[in-house]
Amino acid sequence: MRVLMISDTHVPHRARALPDQVWREVDEADLVIHAGDWVEEAVLDALTDRATVLAGVHGNNDDAAIRSRLPEVAHVEVGGLRIAVVHDTGPAKGREQRCDAHFPGVHVLVFGHSHIPWDTTTPGGIRLLNPGSPTDRRRQPACTYITATVDERGLTDVRLREVTRTGAGRR
């Protein structure tokens, strides 16, 4: 099963739309995970319509309409792999310990908020993944997202992908 992880799309504040490259990944994915800060409800509608399966949460920049449709924390199980999604895990210092305490029994936690790609494993064994942002690189060298595979071995082939600057959604 192919998984796409995105966060912090901030449409239309940081881009007019999601980049074409991301839409191609949506079309290839069996599961799309969005870790919040959609900003525009139309992005949620479009991903809901186009993704095979969508797991998403609201972020701190999302309005009441998005918050009414999405939880603060989402859980999805794929092939025995328990995945949680949340927007903000707090400061980087102490993140692993906080996540172990707040997400017992989870194998993978996808989060956003910082726009900083992150890939670590907690002492308790939770894989922490932040895909960055496909539309707002902030101080990062590139806009990013993550693709991965879930198979009999669990989460495999985890890849941080850079968004090319030629996508239609770029400002």
UniProtKB/TrEMBL annotation:
Chain ranges of the Calcineurin-like phosphoesterase domain: 1-152
What residue ranges carry the coiled-coil annotation? none
Swiss-Prot/TrEMBL keywords: Metal-binding
Annotated Gene3D superfamilies? 3.60.21.10
Q: Cross-referenced SUPFAM superfamilies, in alphabetical order?
A: Metallo-dependent phosphatases
Q: Report if keyword Zinc-finger is assigned.
A: no
Tell me the cofactors it needs: a divalent metal cation
Listed EC numbers: 3.1.4.-
The enzyme's main class, written as a single word, is hydrolase
Tell me which domain of life the UniProt entry assigns to the organism this sequence originates from. Bacteria
Family statement: Belongs to the metallophosphoesterase superfamily. YfcE family.
Q: What name has this protein been given in UniProt?
A: Phosphoesterase
Instruction: State the species of origin.
Output: Allokutzneria oryzae
Tell me the lineage of the source organism.
Bacteria, Bacillati, Actinomycetota, Actinomycetes, Pseudonocardiales
